[in-house]
């Protein structure tokens, strides 16, 4: 019998998330600067007669076990392309917060694709895998690629970015998640309410910040901190006002930058070194403004197979 195959996939933080106007297809054009960070999910694929999902980890209860699970959808998409039955047991060891704005579900989809491709011997090309990823979700191609990258279009059109060093991060994980579509809707609502409008004609085309790209290239945390931005942050704060206290607690503890991660509600804090990150993490844990605190660094590689 074929041996089980395990893929390890990182979470992401968006160091810049510039959101353009609402497109006719319901998505928004982005300038999305992704950084893969060292929180990982592991997806293990074992040969089985039918498709089955199991999940372990603190947030396991919030993850769907049916065909809506992104890992299951990825397996089905690969099997369909190759005209085979998606017979596989996918076990997800979940360490990335669920619905936290860190692309946890996307990580599981990318991991399932890689693991199933190896298990079934479908030998998909990199382009085919990227294609399937983009079909399944805007963040999923980046989960496969990792490192640092600029995402254009709805975030799926990636250009790898050079980074000149390691950046140290603290993540404050909130109680409960935020729905990504709801946060984009709130962003549009706030734009309409301000009188500026939310359509493609009303909002400037999103562009990557040259200062931010320079800071990444130089590995300069202070310069990166000055350049980070997230257009979804006002919407996440509007839906979850308590995040303001979390952001303040991290800033008061000396974080170089404090921002909502993607669609939130996880908050991300940039620190100058691992010691500073630990001090920010300790202060956040003591502040009572979040459920858990994690420290890590990035960039790290994207999805890859590991020895189980
Ligand atoms: C917030 C981010 O995580 C930043 O990286 C992503 O933009 C979200 O990516 P994702 O979770 O992979 O999102 P998808 O599954 O592709 O889309 C979910 C929903 O989010 C909204 N959405 C997503 C991406 C995008 N560029 N514009 C959008 O408006 C749409 O309402 C869409 O129906
Ligand atoms: N494998 C999966 N892991 C977690 N959630 C999943 C998975 N598959 C489907 N979901 C559903 O997707 C929702 C969003 O989960 P996810 O953890 O990907 O959010 P997120 O990290 O905020 O996403 P993003 O940062 O890409 O916007 C969950 O509430 C859950 O119902």
* Ligand inventory: 4-diphosphocytidyl-2-C-methyl-D-erythritol, adenosine-5'-triphosphate
Strand content: 25-35%
Number of domains: 2
Compute the CA-based radius of gyration: 19 Å
The strand count comes to: 12
Question: What separation lies between the terminal Cα atoms?
Answer: 16 Å
Main β-sheet: number of strands, strand sense, barrel status? 8 strands, mixed
CATH classification, class level of the largest domain? Alpha Beta
User: How many helical stretches?
Assistant: 10
Structural class of the secondary elements?
alpha+beta
Give the helices and strands as they follow along the chain.
EEEHEHHHEEEHHHEHHEEHEE
CATH topology of the largest domain: Ribosomal Protein S5, domain 2
Overall mean pLDDT score?
97
Contiguous uncertain segments of 5+ residues: none
Features:
Alpha-Beta Plaits; Ribosomal_Su5_D2-typ_SF; globular; alpha+beta; 308 residues; EC 2.7.1.148; 2 domains; isoprene biosynthesis; 12 strands; 35% helix; 8-stranded mixed sheet; kinase activity; 4-diphosphocytidyl-2-C-methyl-D-erythritol kinase; 4-stranded antiparallel sheet; binds 4-diphosphocytidyl-2-C-methyl-D-erythritol; binds adenosine-5'-triphosphate; single chain
